[in-house]
Amino acid sequence: xxxxxxxxxxxxxxxxxxxxxxxxxxxxxxxxxxxxxxxxxxxxxxxxxxxxxxxxxxxxxxxxxxxxxxxxxxxxxxxxxxxxxxxxxxxxxxxxxxxxxxxxxxxxxxxxxxxxxxxxxxxxxxxxxxxxxxxxxxxxxxxxxxxxxxxxxxxxxxxxxxxxxxxxxxxxxxxxxxxxxxxxxxxxxxxxxxxxxxxxxxxxxxxxxxxxxxxxxxxxxxxxxxxxxxxxxxxxxxxxxxxxxxxxxxxxxxxxxxxxxxxxxxxxxxxxxxxxxxxxxxxxxxxxxxxxxxxxxxxxxxxxxxxxxxxxxxxxxxxxxxxxxxxxxxxxxxxxxxxxxxxxxxxxxxxxxxxxxxxxxxxxxxxxxxxxxxxxxxxxxxxxxxxxxxxxxxxxxxxxxxxxxxxxxxxxxxxxxxxxxxxxxxxxxxxxxxxxxxxxxxxxxxxxxxxxxxxxxxxxxxxxxxxxxxxxxxxxxxxxxxxxxxxxxxxxxxxxxxxxxxxxxxxxxxxxxxxxxxxxxxxxxxxxxxxxxxxxxxxxxxxxxxxxxxxxxxxxxxxxxxxxxxxxxxxxxxxxxxxxxxxxxxxxxxxxxxxxxxxxxxxxxxxxxxxxxxxxxxxxxxxxxxxxxxxxxxxxxxxxxxxxxxxxxxxxxxxxxxxxxxxxxxxxxxxxxxxxxxxxxxxxxxxxxxxxxxxxxxxxxxxxxxxxxxxxxxxxxxxxxxxxxxxxxxxxxxxxxxxxxxxxxxxxxxxxxxxxxxxxxxxxxxxxxxxxxxxxxxxxxxxxxxxxxxxxxxxxxxxxxxxxx
Length: 805
Prior knowledge:
Elements (H helix, E strand, L loop, with lengths): L4 E4 L5 E9 L9 E6 L5 E6 L5 E7 L2 E9 L2 E5 L3 E3 L3 E9 L18 E3 L4 E3 L12 H6 L4 E3 L5 E3 L5 E5 L2 E2 L4 H10 L5 E7 L13 E7 L6 E12 L3 E12 L3 E26 L2 E30 L2 E25 L5 E27 L6 E24 L10 E24 L3 E22 L6 E2 L5 E19 L3 E18 L4 E21 L2 E12 L10 E5 L2 E4 L7 E12 L2 E20 H4 L10 E25 L2 E18 L2 E19 L4 E10 L3 E2 L2 E3 L2 E12 L4 E8 L8 E5 L3 E9 L3 E11 L14 H6 L3
Parallel strand pairs: 2-9, 14-17, 33-36
Antiparallel strand pairs: 1-9, 2-5, 3-4, 3-6, 6-7, 6-8, 10-11, 11-16, 12-13, 14-15, 16-17, 18-19, 18-46, 19-20, 20-21, 20-45, 21-22, 22-23, 23-24, 24-25, 25-26, 26-27, 26-28, 28-29, 29-30, 30-31, 31-34, 32-33, 34-35, 35-36, 36-37, 37-38, 38-39, 39-42, 40-41, 41-44, 42-43, 43-46, 44-45
């Protein structure tokens, strides 16, 4: 080691340089060098040595520091103290001793937990959970803290809908049923981690009133050629299979990666609905529906990309993604109709079949350039994606009297729906560090999204298909978005500040061919955000944040098509659906690993899914009294109050427990038809994850979750809970892993709820295939040397999320 020597340098603080050599006095490249405050060893900055073994730090405040250097093949070493003065350069040099290189194997005993609570997000490390082996992305989300999936596959976070689902930092254009199908076909072995972000900064798109769920796909970071092979089999009521591989080659000039995953799953949704129709508080009739829906799906997911490093400061890359799914759904519906006295009147049965293909393609070109060692950099992305759907459907209905004879002629409705959504986005972000631990970030984004949906329906009851003019439709949608943001942050000794302002300008045009109905609108909105953190002690931090956000309707939520579920139940979109705006506020307190946060938000034009009488929504279309429709609506407002707690507890060296809880109350205000809504309900969501580590490569998990239910617009959900367990064994010199798990052991994690209007009431419960036993195997091959991963975010975050709505 050597003491710091001083020479003249530039102003704006001092400069520190370190020269690192090995025990043979040769310069060491790619050594991680940390600049630490000498009084408390707190981290100031991190640098990497160049080919000459030199790391440099600029704009360092005057004071006393020391350095810590670490390298994968050398022992960690500390420098002597270094005194930094304004306008001076402090230099130091020290030697790293080589580790024993004769070891054939390195055993890593520490690993990331299944769930981590970081300062700005919750991280679900999917591959580090025994229970997640052989699951799908949707099933992992259902087991994640604060995430809930209702009977119609709508995803909510902390009891609030309006979640942005992102894939590798890019918002999925799919929402609603399309997004649910994608997530149910995406195997968990293709996922590295899931980030749950409840308070995004101005750098993110302003969409998502409840936050962002970012699903990160696997990409091997090891040097050289390497990869993984996975396979799994699951058995519930029906079988599930998956297999996949990731391949990666990395050297100092290029990183080439690719993956392929296949999944087959036959899912079940057994939905029972009891409906009552009212007039002046008295029943005018009721029915009971028993829907048994199975949906075998074959999914192929492929990904290929490369990063090129023309210089040490520049990276150019591309990514191509493809997802191809084939669904062959079958729904058997049996309905019993009752009169106003509760006596059986008649019955009908319907069998619906769908043959659906979803083919999605997405490409990204990205660029990153670092101007200097202090962190000044620019990134840019260009995205292009196509999402194509093709669905052939048929619904055959038979009507019966009580004696089993025919009540009326059979009804056969056939349909052919096609859709293509094309998104094009470009964005650029610039980061500029300032003196005294300050930083400015700025950027812009532009996007153009076009959507073309065509639905043709035919009444084929007579044997000759006749166009059904009430259901056949063609809908065009075009949306242009331009956005810019400015973000400022600064670190002080005891506290940190961040202020941001984002502006988004939107222009949209729609055209409904039926009736030649057109809509043209433009609006500009500002979205401020502010974050403040105060360090009470080294391990105690108090924080406060405020932000304004927007949720534009999903593209399919604006689609006016009438989709037949059965002859008395429809689903449709609403071209007049407005965006919702939310002000969110959060107070947080962190003490060591414990985290508490108080949340409040107020939303106007609250977007909600309503199930109402068809006549109330479409008074000009002829229908029977007992026909209902599911449609997105705007409520006047909603208010959310919440308390979140994250409490990791280490019971002993082999038992770790992670506890997460959300207590909240959400109140809605609005009106649909004659029903006025001004109500709320307290609710709780609790997850407990236990992990156990044993000798000889054995480990296990025992995980539980509880949801008390709550108010969701006009619906009140019932409580549900579940318990899952799993065990794993490392084999083949720790290159292989065998996992076995059972999810929802007691088959209790099943949704149920009530929907109430002045003239309509509904009770429903669903039996899904949540109890599944799975055996999975993973094999890792190739070199073990790891290089830091590149964080990639592209420009189409919000658009890719909305495409399925």
